[in-house]
UniProtKB/TrEMBL annotation:
This is Pre-mRNA-splicing factor ini1. Coiled coil: none annotated. InterPro entries: PHF5 (IPR005345). One of its GO terms (cellular component) is U2 snRNP. PANTHER family: PHD FINGER-LIKE DOMAIN-CONTAINING PROTEIN 5A. It comes from the Eukaryota. One of its GO terms (biological process) is response to xenobiotic stimulus. It holds the Pfam family PHF5. Belongs to the PHF5 family.
Amino acid sequence: MSRAQFDLVMCLKQPGTTIGKVCERCDGRCPGCDSLVNSKKMARICDDCSFGNFADRCIICGGKGFTEAYYCSECVRTEKDRDGCPKVTSLGSSRVDMFYEKKKKGQ
């Protein structure tokens, strides 16, 4: 999802020691290329993304995270795991639109 949608902005700061989380929907996905195969190396997020309200959120879609995020073997081989923090900082226009639709319906 992070590579396919162009309106999403990734953090890309220097990663810290905290391991990123993914939700049920994004479980098994690589945060670098969105492939679903060959999980190899844990994805670490920066110190700024690991504190506050969004600390335990999914690094790909922003949902409630419960499982550790892993890079695939292809991203490790091409060193995409060293680009920086993989957490998506902007929710994108689709998430914002969904928020306002729920607010309009009164949910």
